[in-house]
Predict the 3D structure of the following.
Amino acid sequence: MLTIALPKGALLKESIARFQAIGLDFSAFLDKSNRQLQITTPNGKAQGLLVRAQDVPVYVEYGQAQLGIVGYDVLREKQADVAQLADLGFGHCRMSVAVKATSPYRSALDLPAHCRVASKFVNCARDYFNGIDLPVDIVPLYGSVELGPITGMSEAIVDLVSTGRTLQENNLVELEVLYQSTARLIAHPISYRVNSDGLSDIIQQLRSPALVTA
């Protein structure tokens, strides 16, 4: 039976809608009274795993799920060995460098060498600053990283931005956009190659332009 890893959080509702459109119903995960983390579709064709977004690539890489949906930001950060199959066109956000609005910095290159940058996306932040040849001290934070500059613990942050409202309300401004992020369809590489459980048909349906542009 095909197993699919679905991400908790902002991408879940649209991810479930995409699978519903091709006959795989995981809508029980949207029932707040349901505490199950693994369910089987009513037609018995697939089972779903409800996991943290950061864990989706891990379940797929290790073969506990053949398919998954996850944000590109997570893929960049986790650097998992999975097959990236399609940009599904939802979950738009961006990875950005931000600082206090009152700071003198107007680009990332203005930041002083060896300053502190807070982020939960440690690998993404490190790769970016290495790419512009600016040595910085990455401070891992997994809560509200906006507090880094506010409290003076860091000069800047690297974090996901959607509407920008959180930055604005905390008197922060974006300096640079590292990349744009959307939901991506991923697969276990071996399962994808051998087409286990009719995986290719499912992937082709999910790649349908009518679904991607919906």
About this structure: Residues 73 and 181 are 6 Å apart (CA to CA). The longest helix spans residues 122-131. The domain at 2-91+182-212 is CATH 3.40.190.10 (D-Maltodextrin-Binding Protein; domain 2). The two ends are 28 Å apart (CA to CA).
